[in-house]
């Protein structure tokens, strides 16, 4: 039983030094190295790679949970630009996937009517960013203003708000669907100011940028806010026919079949 004892001893030592994932695969890695005639360097690289992959996957899972994405987020590779008349191209999506704009604290605005895939694009970029090791937070605008309202008085709201502020990417979905109060607009402006050039924000909206003043209820405040948002921003105005109109076969007559596609 000496080999088994040796593996157990190695596993204990690795655990003592804080390794959690490599010990689980140690026996298999040793066997593969012996069969394949791996060098010491190759064996050590395989062992450390198993630990790194395990840690990265754990981090990814943690970041994915903290993002608060809605169910069934789809990979951005599934987005078909051919469904649109105009607004964004495959080449532009490929550029966005490089995440240079995220490293430079840039913002993105996806604007256009409902049903064109604005939310799918933003969530796809968010999922891609998490897979690349970034932290992401997702909130619909109506939920976000409620968090802003309660951040100073409710523990859960305060915790969520602090996470959103620390996230490297924040996705604020559906600006313009619900008007907000002057006080909420002021708090939203404070958030934009506090995260300016520290966090990248993706906005989805059914309104053109000049119309945001109607939502905020204060043209002066909106102008100051947009100066910050648009300073390092890329704007995409999507045009086309609603997905649910182009594919009515996916929905029953009472509208209950299937989930509504992302905006």
SSE topology:
Blueprint: H1 2-16, H2 22-36, H3 40-67, H4 90-97, H5 100-103, E1 107-111, H6 118-131, E2 136-140, H7 141-150, H8 155-166, E3 169-175, H9 182-195, E4 200-205, H10 212-216, H11 219-231, E5 233-237, H12 243-246
Parallel strand pairs: 1-4, 1-5, 2-3, 3-4
Helix pairs in contact: 1-2, 2-3, 7-8, 9-11
Q: How would you describe this protein?
A:
- With 263 residues, the chain is an alpha/beta fold.
- The protein folds into 2 domains: 2-66, no CATH class; 70-250, Rossmann fold (3-Layer(aba) Sandwich), CATH 3.40.50.
- The chain is 54% helix and 11% strand.
- The chain has helices at residues 2-16, 22-36, 40-67, 90-97, 100-103, 118-131, 141-150, 155-166, 182-195, 212-216, 219-231, 243-246, and strands at residues 107-111, 136-140, 169-175, 200-205, 233-237.
- Strands 2-3-4-1-5 form a 5-stranded parallel sheet, sandwiched between helices.
- Strand 3 (169-175), helix 9 (182-195) and strand 4 form a beta-alpha-beta unit.
- The chain is elongated and about 70 Å long.
């Amino acid at each position: 039983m000496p080999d088994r004892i040796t593996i157990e001893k190695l596993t204990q030592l690795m655990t003592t030094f804080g390794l959690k994932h490599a010990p689980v695969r140690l026996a298999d890695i040793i066997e593969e190295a012996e069969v394949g005639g791996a060098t010491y360097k190759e064996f050590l690289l395989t062992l450390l790679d198993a630990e790194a992959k395990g840690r990265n996957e754990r981090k990814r899972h943690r970041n994915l949970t903290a993002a608060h994405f809605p169910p069934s987020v789809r990979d951005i590779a599934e987005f078909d630009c051919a469904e649109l008349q105009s607004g964004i191209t495959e080449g532009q999506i490929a550029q966005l996937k490089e995440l240079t704009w995220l490293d430079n604290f840039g913002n993105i605005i996806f604007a256009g009517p409902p049903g064109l895939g604005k939310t799918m694009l933003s969530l796809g970029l968010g999922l891609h960013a998490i897979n690349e090791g970034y932290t992401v937070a997702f909130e619909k605008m109506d939920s976000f203003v409620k968090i802003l309202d309660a951040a100073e008085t409710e523990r859960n709201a305060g915790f969520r708000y602090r996470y959103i502020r620390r996230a490297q990417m924040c996705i604020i979905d559906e600006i313009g669907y619900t008007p907000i109060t002057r006080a909420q607009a002021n708090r939203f402006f404070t958030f934009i100011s506090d995260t300016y050039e520290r966090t990248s924000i993706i906005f989805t909206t059914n309104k053109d940028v000049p119309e945001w003043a109607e939502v905020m209820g204060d043209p002066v405040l909106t102008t100051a806010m947009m100066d910050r948002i648009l300073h390092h921003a890329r704007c995409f105005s999507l045009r086309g026919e609603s997905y649910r109109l182009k594919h009515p076969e996916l929905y029953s007559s009472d509208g209950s079949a299937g989930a509504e596609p992302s905006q």
